[in-house]
Every structure is written in C-alpha cells, then in structure tokens.
Amino acid sequence: MIRKWTFLLLFLCVVQTIFAQNFYLKLSNAALQLTKDQVTYDPTYFKLKYPNGDVPADKGVCTDVVIRAYRKLGIDLQKEVHEDMVKNFKKYPKKWGLKSPDSNIDHRRVPNLMVFFSRYGKVKPISTKPEDFAPGDIVTWDLDGGLTHIGLVVNRKSADGKRYMIVHNIGAGQVMQDCLFSFKMTGHYQFQK
Predict the structure, then answer these.
(1) Taking the model in full, what pTM does it have?
(2) How many domains does the chain divide into?
(3) Sheet holding 138-142, edge to edge
(4) pLDDT score at 11
C-alpha cells in the first residue's frame, strides 16, 4: 500500500513538473509573439477598463510586455495586482505618492510587479550563471538613476549559445535581445497562477 502511494505521489510530481515546464514554454512563446507587433515606447498614464484593460496596442513600456504575455495565457495581471494591492496596500512601494490602489497604473510599475511576484510566485536566485535562467523566467533590473526595468526570458539563445535571450521594451518597442547580464539585476522570478 505504501509503495502505491509513493508511486502515485511521484507520478503527480512528474506531471506537475511537466505542466509547469509547458506553461513557462507557452509564456516564452507568447513573449516572442509580441515582438511581431509594432509598439512605440510610451509611458503615458492611460485610463484603462477594468479588468483586462490594456494601453493602446501600438504603445507600451517594459511592464506591458510581461502583462501582455501573461494575458495571452489567460492571466490578467492588472486584476491580480490590483486585488492584492486593495487587500495589502501597505506591502507595496509608496514611490508615487498614492494613498490607495489605482487599477490604471499599479500593474504597470516594475516595483509593484516585484512585490507581487515575490508574494505569489517563486523567487529565484539573482545569479551571473546563465544556467540559472529558464524560458518563462521574469527578470528585473536597475538601470541607474532610479529607473527600473523588467523582461521575460525566452527560449532563444544568444549568438554564442551561452545565454537565453530577453523579450522586453527598453525604448525600441517589444524586442528580443541578448541583455540578460547587461544591467544590474534586482529580481528573478517565476509566476504561474
């Protein structure tokens, strides 16, 4: 009887691992699809519908890449972040002088996504080893001068084959680049709802 339960538990762990790997590969593919869209970098504050609100399709910033990739998999980070901020506003940064959550912008701020992914995702080590990163991982960086950045690790390798590439928007639209170690890394996460 114990052997059957052990086998069943092992089987369920394998199935869960395969499902998770499949999810992150789908997230990677969703991010790669975004690079086909013409998007102008635009940090304008937009009034968004809620839930499932998005800025105009031809505009966006780095956080919009992550938001749009997850949305392709049926996960609305606008709703997820907003609901958590309504319940746990004190746990989120107060950099912008807000006294309450704002569903139009909160999910579009890197520090808020860092808190959200830390609370509900898996925090992975900040590392200089390429093998510590996998497709579907989320990485955040400090660009100096108080500027933060976020991108998704995708299932494409750098020209030398040593690192996974990043899909992000740092000013040139939603692009794939070899920039994993180009900036000071501040966070490394996986998130699956």
Answers:
(1) 0.90
(2) 1
(3) 122-123, 184-190, 138-142, 148-157, 164-168, 175-177
(4) 44
d(CA 136, CA 75): 14
> How far is the C-alpha of 184 from the C-alpha of 78, rounded, in Å?
26
Residues 26 and 73: beta-carbon distance below 8 Å: yes
- Rg (C-alpha) for the chain, rounded Å, is 18
Distance (Å, whole) CA 150 – CA 58: 19
Per the listing, tokens 């006294």 go with 99
**Bridge partner list, 149:** 141
Task: Using 50 as the pLDDT threshold, list the residues of the chain that sit under it.
Answer: 7-8, 10-15, 17-19
CATH number for 66 = 3.90.1720.10
* Dist CA 101 CA 115 (whole Å): 14
On the CB side of 113, CA atoms within 13 Å amount to 30
Helix 77-88 to helix 62-72 angle (10° resolution) is: 110
Task: Categorise residue 66: left if φ over 0, alpha if ψ from -120 to 50, beta otherwise.
Answer: alpha
Range of the domain at 99: 2-190
